[in-house]
Design brief:
CATH architecture of chain A: 3-Layer(aba) Sandwich
Distance between the termini of chain B: 37 Å
Radius of gyration of chain B: 26 Å
Helix content of chain B: 25-40%
Number of helices of chain B: 18
Largest interface: B-D, 65 and 65 residues
CATH class of chain A: Alpha Beta
Shape of chain A: globular
Number of domains of chain B: 4
Structural class of chain B: alpha/beta
Shape of chain B: globular
Radius of gyration of chain A: 20 Å
CATH superfamily of the largest domain in chain B: Pyruvate-ferredoxin oxidoreductase, PFOR, domain III
CATH topology of chain A: Rossmann fold
Strand content of chain B: 15-25%
Largest sheet of chain B: 7 strands, mixed
Largest sheet of chain A: 8 strands, mixed
Order of helices and strands of chain A: HHEEHEHHEHEHEHEHEH
Oligomer: heterotetramer
Bound molecules: thiamine diphosphate, iron/sulfur cluster, magnesium ion
Distance between the termini of chain A: 57 Å
Number of helices of chain A: 10
Structural class of chain A: alpha/beta
């Protein structure tokens, strides 16, 4: 049985006390415990940002990649050894800004990984510039006169990109978030979990209080049906007095790995590479 | 020794590439040596394409200046190339397409209704290329059956038996037309016909084969001329060899995927040209600091920017040596011919894993796309060496340090899913466990550890090759694809009674400083040959050894060197030198 | 009056005879003529691809940029001189593959430019690899065993990204396409015109015939309303027996330039840069 | 000459940066010279931060080894830095936060209830920093009013009058506490007080000012330490100076936007660090081949990869010299101090437009973030030169050739919206009109044309600066931010009676080969000082001049040089040399 304690590192997180990232870390650990995943079979791939520091403080394998590049690394790890549980984490700048292309294409590709975005609507680690999810008018170091463009909508983008599991959590509700991550990991395919994550140092708008007042759970809305993409798309634009969290959309479709006869029997990493016979290829060239 | 060169020219998009390849391969089948070079613009149809094949009884290493047979599919090709044809040579042209007004002297003109002959027996227009092949074959004494065989091989696979035999019919029609109408022409006569089995292969295919043999199981790439055919070839073989071949959304993703797969324990590669490599530069550093093996192929083309996408140049040497921020060890290998493409790609994977660092294979369009004739690759000696892979319990797994500071700089490598060796691969500076650490002492320790690997590697490789006589008047220095033309130039120089030799630099990093010094300090006249404008290798030699070359022969018009051109420049230099 | 002839260059296009790009070029020239735009006030910014060659054959200013990078260049040209008409063109690989991030963020930014994507569902210039819009199962040089992932959906992505003008044209219907381009240029904001463009050399699936049989015009469907985003989203997924072309969605919102007091009076390029007085900044530093 | 160094240390996220800056600036206001250096980890809160300010009556160019006053905000800071305090120095610590067990000898300990004093009068905890400032000021004979003034300036603007005065109150409390309780301590006495107005500015601010003065109207960037504050500063001033400042989705977009704006006729810049620059490399070639001016700032930090994001290094020199595929002219300028940051940025815009090429300004974290004292920038001589802008009708607009092959390589530049001069800016190789062209002759013509610009430019710039005595035993060679520590080292060496001088290389491309040769050929002992591991400038000097330096003093632990360290190494080298 995997325990919470064995996932906990000696080093303590260096995030600002009160940062929403703590909630995400706890939820992720909870989920791994709940699913009883052996810790050496979990790989966490991170981008760069405050969010990217997460894998340092959870006792699993980790690849800390470049800013915006967690997804290509994570997908390839999964393809190379699909017995692993691969979880990518990153920030909103990381995933929805510099990493946009990887984000969109990973979703349609449907490699079976889980992607947790620490969406604090700010660039945390670089000390407070606007992010792709910062709200219009938001004042920051890089937008002292107010941000001009409206934010990206990750949920809508996911729906437009054939993402097979689309959810939003809130770092202030660890229990609910844990459950979402559990479902995300269990889901066969690419699972996006966008997490509303208060940054107490640089985002004075989207605070705990801000979200406490607004979030409500989709699963508590009986009229909601997470298999209806059109409905999900409509919900994706709900952001104001009320902000939905929970599972927006889910569908079952083949994963990318499912369509690779190359690894139908043996994971790539287990295949013997000694003495590969290329004589027929040489023959073809003669 | 009999040899000849054959060129076909016409509009892009009309199968010239396949035709040229078939021509060369047929002669290789017949036991001869062939070498080809193509030239085409960055367009799909239209524009002018040529494909030149040189055929010889003896080993050859590049194309050469003039041609013996020209096949002109259109007016433009005729006008543009007619004067390249040597005295006594032949020009075949399609009388269905154009008429000629003037013709060069001392050349045999063969007006042939290529299109008519192709379509007569139910073939399509495009099959006139095969008519031309047959007609060309008829100008030699080589058995036409080799041509039929190769046509069959090429078309049967791709288009089915029927198409294959119509193509053969077309070739036959051309062959017979010449036999009948131009029986009086003096043919190109080959005297022997060894019949050894040899490969006809280009640099990209050789790299792909090297990678497959090395156990590359993951290839991620974004298409880019002239690297794309590696992607195509591996994709074709992905099921046969259990390789995951992934075309990605961009080059950034491609290299990160290769790094990810490698981190998970699979040998992985990516390939691109200079513009795509530019997008990969950041990730090179990621591979370096996380000590993740990765092999990157860069097939150069003329820059800057999009430049001349379908032409050749050797202008990314300094770029690959210094690409990415910060300082870290990397290996840069520049194969000079197709067999080096194969063997050095195989080596690249071993080096990448033994030393846990990025290895770059630097080729160019000329090497990537030109087919050469070579003995079947010798596979016996090729041993996979995965380096210091951590097997369970060794070292004491309880205190596993992924980035342990060892004497060699190389640390044991564990893979995800191995128990008790959980570690963090970190893009930030880190301590021996992979944890972020900004302490100055640790920093120096990790920097020195990483760089030590290169020192160890230096002892293991031979970075240069040496050709020609020992006591030479002239020492030519080059790297990469200039090898073929230089070797041919050596032959010509020898015939002219000049004592010349050639130092080929295969490993650009770690730079074989000592070898280069030893050779160049003794060299009488050091002549640098590079397919670029700024003599990048020249600068590197100066930096590493302090030695100035005496002359630089540089070419940066997007075309590879022709042996005769090198010889002429050398003669120019020597003459000038007498004054 | 701008005439078709003066837009025509001496050089003839080198596209394969029959290529859908011819239709797009003609429609674009038609549109410029119809709008009577002075040719020196039009700048066409292209990416790399067969599509990217377009500006060579139309007599306006042009910036031929890098593969995937037409949009950042185009947006900046517009910001630097917003009196210009700026039109970006590119391929599906260019815009929806390597350029995805720019595409998504340009749309929400709403700089007043027109973006025409030559969507031939193939990599043309590199001689026939799968593109982000190639259909699942599509066989190409890079996917000889069939493409695994489903295509991106540019229309849905545009809707998810607050694009203020979202349309699809067909290179085989020049008149209709002309009208779309006219509307796109007239629209105040970022206008996306995705164009179904047969590639006769490498895409044997999505041919003229393929589209002739399937396309229908949204404007001929009386029940369709291009101001309804949800409806548009639904239509965005219609791809099969019937394929809609026309205007999917349009909304009026402020352009990015509208919110820049810096250029409210004088375009950036016209501002005098001689003798800029920085003495107060120096003072602040003392 | 009176001088002292002051250091404050504590946890990140508690305003140490502002506090340190205020301290330095107060002394500059008082007519002295200050220089500061900060050190912080890549974390927002927690972790250890320090800010060191050196103050002097005479001009100073860097920080120095030891400190006179330490303000320890926590235990860790006390323990870590207590031994850096010189004999007779002072340690102020917050008795509200921790107790000390042992104390260094010969140092005055000032236990002060910083937090209590801060909160007593209604201030917040964080205001204890101001208490410390007041207390520190009380250890000098400088009028406390300068401190109040600067506190007021800093807080009034950002947080309003009230907060400003509470902060001043806190400072006052600290000042008075020391006056009252430690009146017997010997203060640091300054003897004169010139009162000239001087700036206290860091490298990034100086670059931003240089850009504004140069008429930069478009700045696009993606945040990256240590370049981000250029973005912040320019964004703050965007309305005052009509600059469009755009944070983009990534660095690729940032540089392409700058290129686009410039193509449209606006002076444009982007800025980043090494990792972001890696993503910009492809676009450099685009600027080069389209001949679009663009200015790129690269503020270096230690690599490879993410490395040590908040530290300093000079390890991207070779990278910027060779970044991007193919060969093209570029200019690389490495300012060595804040005023060079200003003037060279101004120059960079002129050069970029006159020569129509990319110009890279290479700094590093140390230069970017350290404030130095300098005379107000002298603006008289600064003339905008936009180069060969085409005015209507000149040349004959009917046959306008954007890429005309001229003697200088520079062609007239037209802008969109100009009539009759429609042209194509092409990323592919092109002819003089900008039309795609793959012909070999045209290729050479355009390559040579582009490179000629660099030759012309070479004649216009002075790429080096020279400091110190002519007839020296020792010649130090450096580039970039090592300038400050080297100049300070020269002072120390002079005091020790050693004859030394210093060759600063400001332009790395085009490389000032002749000047470097002239100086180094005569130099007795050539000592290279670089903040990197591989002696990149050393290699470049060897490549360009064939000259080997005699010794290399290299530092790659992420920290800048300290003058005393350079001196010690030089002494080591000289001693060793005697044997
Ligand atoms: C290529 C590159 N550009 C810029 C940076 C600097 N950088 C580090 S983290 C970051 C953004 C952080 O924001 P986000 O991704 O939202 O993560 P957060 O810190 O908010 O968790 C940036 C721009 C980088 N490391 N690499
Ligand atoms: C960075 C980079 N990678 C790859 C290429 C090679 N390349 C040129 S065009 C192209 C794709 C063409 O496809 P698309 O964008 O759909 O345009 P089309 O030719 O179909 O119009 C590619 C991959 C390049 N020029 N630059
Ligand atoms: S800066 Fe914000 S996101 Fe980063 S650790 Fe602090 S509170 Fe969390
Ligand atoms: S390859 Fe396709 S897209 Fe390109 S010009 Fe030919 S038909 Fe058009
Ligand atoms: Mg964030
Ligand atoms: Mg396409």
């Amino acid at each position: 049985m995997t325990s919470f304690e064995e996932l906990t590192t000696q080093e303590k997180p260096t995030w600002c006390p009160g940062c929403g990232n703590f909630g995400i870390l706890t939820a992720l650990k909870n989920a791994i415990v709940e699913l009883n995943l052996p810790k050496h079979e979990v790989v966490i791939v991170a981008g760069i940002g405050c969010s990217g520091h997460l894998p340092q403080w959870i006792n699993t394998f980790a690849f800390h990649s470049l800013h915006g590049r967690a997804l290509p690394v994570a997908q390839a790890i999964k393809l190379a050894n699909h017995k692993l549980k691969v979880i990518a984490v990153g920030g909103d700048g990381d995933g929805y800004g510099i990493g946009t292309a990887h984000f969109i294409h990973a979703m349609r590709r449907n490699v079976n990984i889980t992607y947790i975005v620490h969406n604090n609507q700010i660039y945390g680690l670089t000390t407070g510039q606007a992010s792709p999810t910062s709200e219009k008018g938001f004042k920051s170091k890089s937008t002292p006169h107010g941000l001009i463009e409206p934010p990206v909508n990750p949920i809508a983008l996911a729906l437009a990109s054939d993402c097979s599991f689309v959810a939003r959590g809130f770092a202030g509700d660890v229990k609910h978030l844990t459950h979402l991550i559990v479902q995300g990991i269990q889901h066969k395919g690419f699972a996006l979990i966008d997490v509303l994550q208060p940054c107490i140092s640089f985002n004075y708008l989207n605070t705990y209080e801000y979200f406490m007042k607004r979030v409500y759970k989709l699963e508590e809305d009986n009229s909601y049906n997470f298999t209806n993409k059109r409905l999900a798309f409509e919900k994706a634009f709900e952001w104001g007095e009320k902000i939905p969290i929970g599972l927006f959309y889910k569908e079952e479709r083949k994963t990318y790995e499912d369509e690779l006869p190359q690894i139908a029997e043996i994971p790539l990493v287990k295949q013997n590479i000694n003495e590969i016979d290329i004589s027929s290829l040489i023959e073809e060239m003669c | 020794m009999t040899e000849f060169s054959w060129k076909i020219g016409g509009e892009a998009g009309y199968g010239i590439m396949t035709t040229g390849f078939i021509f060369g391969k047929s002669f290789v089948r017949a036991g001869f040596f062939a070498f080809d070079i193509n030239e085409y613009p960055s367009l799909i149809r239209g524009g002018h394409n040529t494909y030149t094949v040189r055929v010889s009884e003896e080993p050859i290493f590049s194309h050469t200046k003039n041609i013996n047979i020209l096949v002109a599919l259109n007016d433009f090709a005729f006008e543009k190339h007619k004067n390249e044809v040597k005295k006594g040579g032949f020009i075949i042209y399609d009388t269905d397409t154009f008429n000629i007004n003037s013709k060069p002297k001392d050349v045999n003109i063969l007006p042939i209704p290529l299109t008519t002959l192709a379509t007569e027996k139910g073939g399509q227009n495009i099959m006139r290329n095969n008519v031309a092949l047959g007609a060309s074959f008829a100008l030699t004494n080589v058995d036409i059956k080799f041509l039929y065989e190769v046509i069959n091989d090429v078309f049967k696979e791709k288009k089915g038996e029927n198409i294959a035999s119509t193509n053969i019919e077309a070739a036959k029609a051309g062959y017979e037309f010449v036999q009948k109408n131009f029986s009086n022409l003096k043919k190109i006569e080959f005297t022997h016909n060894r019949k050894e089995k040899r490969m006809y292969i280009n640099g990209n295919e050789a790299i792909a084969l090297g990678a497959i043999k090395a156990g590359c199981k993951f290839y991620a790439a974004y298409p880019m001329t002239p690297a794309s055919s590696i992607l195509h070839y591996l994709a074709l073989k992905e099921y046969d060899y259990n390789i995951i071949v992934k075309q990605t959304e961009d080059e950034i993703s491609a290299i990160h995927m290769a790094i990810g797969a490698s981190f998970a324990g699979v040998r992985a590669m990516t390939g691109t040209s200079g513009g795509g490599f530019a997008l990969m530069t950041e990730a090179l550093g990621l591979a370096a600091i996380t000590e993740t093996p990765v092999v990157v192929v860069l097939a150069q083309r003329p820059g800057p920017s999009t430049g001349m996408p379908t032409h050749t140049e050797q202008s990314d040497l300094r770029f690959v040596l210094h690409a990415s921020n910060g300082e870290f060890p990397r290996v840069v290998i520049a194969p000079g011919d197709v067999s080096e493409c194969f063997y050095e790609t195989f080596n690249a994977f071993n080096i990448a894993e033994k030393y846990q660092l990025p290895v770059i294979i630097l080729t160019d369009k000329f090497l990537a796309e030109s087919h050469a004739t070579t003995d079947p690759f010798f596979l016996e000696g090729l041993k996979i060496d995965r380096g210091m892979m951590l097997n369970k319990g060794q070292p004491e797994a309880k205190d596993y340090k992924r980035y342990e500071n060892t004497i060699t700089g190389i640390s044991f490598r564990a893979l995800p899913s191995q128990e008790n060796v959980i570690f963090k691969a970190a893009t930030d500076e880190h301590n021996e466990y992979g944890r972020l650490e900004e302490d100055p002492v640790n920093r120096i320790l990790q920097m020195d550890k990483r760089f030590r690997k290169l020192k160890v590697l230096e002892g293991e490789i031979v970075g240069t090759k040496f050709y020609g006589v020992e006591d030479a008047e002239i020492t030519i220095i080059g790297w990469g694809s200039t090898k073929g033309p230089i070797l041919e130039a050596l032959k010509i120089l020898a015939k002219k009674g000049m004592r010349a030799n050639y130092l080929q630099i295969v490993y650009l990093m770690p730079f074989p400083t000592n070898m280069v010094k030893v050779v160049l300090e003794d060299a009488k006249k050091k002549i640098l040959v590079e397919n670029n404008k700024t003599a990048q290798l020249g600068g590197l030699i100066k930096e590493m050894t302090g030695i100035d070359v005496d002359y630089k022969i540089l070419k940066y018009d997007g075309r590879p060197f022709i042996p005769e051109e090198i010889v002429a420049k050398i003669e120019e230099v020597l003459t000038f030198d007498k004054f």
